[in-house]
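DM from R.C. (forwarded with permission)

"hey, sorry to bug you on a friday — could you get me a structure for this? deadline for the figure draft is monday and I only need the backbone to look sensible"
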Amino acid sequence: MAYLYYAAMLTAGSVFGFVLALLIALDVIVFDGITSTARGIILGAGVLFLVLGVVYFVWEYIGRDRRLLVFRDGLVYVYRGTPQVCRWAEIDEVIWTHHDANGVASYHLKLSSAPDLIFNSVYFRLEDIIRLGEILREELELYDDQAAWTEFR
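My reply, with the result:
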């Protein structure tokens, strides 16, 4: 929900920036204080910020229904109201990656009895994905037929 708030604020800021750029451009046109190139740059920047704000808002709106719930026996991934249950024993392989430099972490769970699950820091907070990896390691060590861990580089 916090992401939706930030997206709304970014969109509102973008709209404000566009209106401000438009007013500055109109003012400059009326008073003819600067060149038409500068007016174009100011107006173009306002339009660019508006488009980026709207795209970000839509991106966050689409991803708002993603939840990951971790339990003692497994996890439940809810996307658009549809839950997918994953028990720890069903995990055959974990393909993971973690790049500190660009703040990306990902866990791809290959399951024996259900479609694969992919969790990454695009849709979840980086700290939550890192914690998910710690939980996966702790829980999967308890099983005799441990899941294979593969690092993707």
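R.C.: lifesaver. The chain has three helices and seven strands.
me: no worries. The beta strands are 66-70, 74-79, 82-87, 91-99, 104-111, 117-120, 148-151.
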